[in-house]
Write a structure and sequence with these properties.
Blueprint lengths: L4 E5 L18 E6 L3 H11 L4 E7 L4 H10 L6 E2 L2 H5 L6 E4 L6 H10 L3 E5 L6 H13 L4 E4 L6 H11 L8 E7 L22 H5 L9 H5 L10 H18 L7 E7 L12 E8 L2 E8 L4 E9 L2 E5 L3 E6 L16 H15 L11 E5 L6 H14 L7 H20 L3 E4 L4 E3 L3
Helix pairs in contact: 1-2, 1-11, 4-5, 5-12, 6-9, 9-12
Amino acid sequence: MLPNARGATLEPQPQPGAGKAVGANDRIRFGIIGVGMEGSNVLASALSLPGAECVAAADLYDGRHTLAKEITGNPNLPTTRRYHDILDRKDIDCVLVAVPDFWHRQIVVDACEAGKDVYCEKPMSHTVAEGFDMVQAAEQHNRVVQVGAQRVSSVLCAKAREMVRGGAIGEVNMVELTLGRNSPTGAWEYPPPPDLSAANFDWDTWLKDTPKIPFNPDRFARWRCWRDYGTGVAGDLMVHLISAMLFTLDWNEPPRSALSLGGIYRWKDGRDMPDLQTVLFDYHGIPVYIRLGLSTETPETARYMGPKGVLDTTEFGIHYSPQAGIDTDPSYYDSSYPAKMRQEYVKEWHEEHDPPPGKEPLTEQTLYAGDDWDDLRPHIWTFFESVKTRRPNVENAVFGNHAAIACHMANLSYFQKRQVFWDSSTRTVKDSL
């Protein structure tokens, strides 16, 4: 622990009903669409919650049918390659969607039209226009839609939000969001399933409306590397940081502008999305700087700065450093004074500002420790509660769309090599206003 620091452990978010018998009215029957790396985590996390039951799973790769049965412990779990088979079922309350970005819009819209509530993995959309289609579908069909950037439901972000609202750092005047990885897995060079083939995987359907190319296992496993299918480091990593920031600071809006620089510096494996991306956003006049890299590991930190101090939030904790914002010594400008004047100034300054002996001020820093802000369980629990109660959730379609717009603006700026601006009247990104 740092000198003059006091610590506290944050209690996890309560999960009503945990450890108790679950009545029929409290049960949630869900289907899952996409059981890959993230989908398998979503499925296991959902099943760890009281009253949750998976009744069907869909994936275009048959190996994940087997995986879904293993995770649920149900060898007879209905599985299918057609996600519409799940949407057509009348015995499910909602669907969990964890598929590549370029599939989000179609599945979410289809689910809403089928009368199903939807938990959709981040980023919400693959393009700006798709996000508004999804918002419209949720509103038109009165469906609960929650986007899966889970930090919005973490105790750490809740505490940071409380502290900012309470004036701990004063008016926020800058935000820095940083994250760095340094491994092939961290750069999405995932090993495709060894048995993946045209016999057990529907490659043509997976491609959707993207360019038709021959079967390519790397494209399937490493889809985040290509613009046709994903949104790069912005949609995979930045969206977590942006979503947490929007929640912490009560900024449920797109940025005014974005200016991005970066490139492919290390992972020259055929990808067309950058492996280093820096972005400077303007959120109603406040600069938000973001650095995302895949070739140097650095701590993941969200730093909120104001005249009263700094709030550093990380995966497992919050570090609050208050600042008085006053001089603690005579101004070094006195070096421009003649010697006699300088001596008189220093003497007078100390007489006016020095505390009495034994009354020297003590500056405390505060540390809060809490559950991993990437724990999926509180977030999925929030979704299930909204499905049961019909009460709105924080990371609804509008919120998720705002976070995704920031990612799209960052990518558009990167590819166009210029600053881009948000036009709220046309709901489009423009080169100028």
